[in-house]
Amino acid sequence: MTDLDAFRTETRAWLEENCPPEVRGPMASEADTIWGGRDAVFATPGHKLWLERMGARGWTAPEWPREYGGGGLSREEAKVLASELRRIKAQPALASFGVWMLGPALLAFGTEEQKKRFLPEIVRGDIRWCQGYSEPGAGSDLASIQTKAEDRGDHWMVNGQKIWTSYADKADWIFCLVRTDPEAPKHLGISFVLFDMKTPGVTTRPITLISGKSPFCETFFDDVRVEKENLVGTLNRGWDVAKYLLAHERTMIGAMGEVGAGRPLAQTALETIGADAEGRLDDPMLRARIAELEIDAAAFRLAMERAGDQMKAKQAHPAIASMLKYYGSELNKRRHELRMAAGGIDALEWEGERSHGGAAARDWLRTKANSIEGGTSEIQLNIIAKHLLQLPGA
Prior knowledge:
four-stranded antiparallel beta sheet; single chain; alpha+beta; 11 helices
């Protein structure tokens, strides 16, 4: 038995003993998502226990160093853990912008004090983060941000507005781009800072989308005090941190295409449409489309693993995140289109028990934002054309 085989055996035994039954199987709704944070709400006691156990082991961020609360696993061990979690159909122990985006940036650019202060809290799910990037006049052209931070000696005073701030109304802290040198070229003079969302002067306003609900908010800063110790990276070089973090954000959004939440599409379609004499879905066209999606999703998962290996070895092309983001977003949109088709007339219902409060329709509408958030599909295609394919005139 190799060391990796032994690790798999130990991991399987630990998961069987410690993964509560409530978190095995597809998520019933968005309420099953474990976000953590100061005011965390859990769907069941089992969801809370799952976060506590996985966080204590560092397996919410399995490849982060142990000295910062992570699991300290090698890339190969992390793959084994992921495969064992899939085997028992375990739901994610933590959904976290801290794990997906801020944590990698802190590991690369943060001070030792910042790493020791924030990373263990992120791993345990004690702190929930939101991202202060986009502004009303700075979306795809992110470097045009106008939110300013004035130097007041021992602190900065921040004023401005952010928009499309996901879960800003529920977050504990924000990682935020601010302009600290208004005279510098737009890609310079930007700094990357952290501050508590309960700081006086911070207000949020949810934005309702076509789905009837939304994670997105407007966020306003009026004379918000930010301590100098919460600067990440070099003053006026926050664009370096922002670009690094964007690659992780786009990979995270792309990962939505890897797996689908909710019941398997084939099961939903069988219950709605029924089976033919051979026990197959009695709609050959829909059956073929579902099979095609499942094959594409499996291939995409392998592509994600390969890209992860390349990133870990520092061999990945910087634009690979744009490719993953684009394909994953489109794949997730396809999945929800098929979920609507598989659900039949029930999927069109907006309210009621059969539709689970219009979950299928609302989730389908929500996916329309996948190709906008984190950089539009058009922007990602431009990056791919220019930097990966090196097309003339791109």
